[in-house]
Give the backbone structure.
Amino acid sequence: MKIFTTIKTGYAYSRNYGWRGDYYKIIVINGKKTYSYNLLTGYEKTEPVKQYLKNKGYTELYTGTDIYGQIKRNDIKGYRFDTLEDIKRDIK
């Protein structure tokens, strides 16, 4: 079974600059292996990641959430976010 799901976990907003991006958790399951990624996205959202996974034969499992909020800079201090290149390295 090759599936993935995308969950929006928050957004960033700056008083001076406006909307700064959205935070997502992507979970990828390939048989007995599970991968989890944290993304900070801009206007492209998660579309490049979704398209890459679909091209690799993964099926998207819809899991929505209505509970997410604004993430402040101190909330993510020292936190590492993944990129499409990190996902490509793991999922070939």
The chain has a mean pLDDT of 88. DSSP finds two helices and five strands in the chain. Residues 14 and 40 are 15 Å apart (CA to CA). The first strand starts at residue 2 and ends at 14.
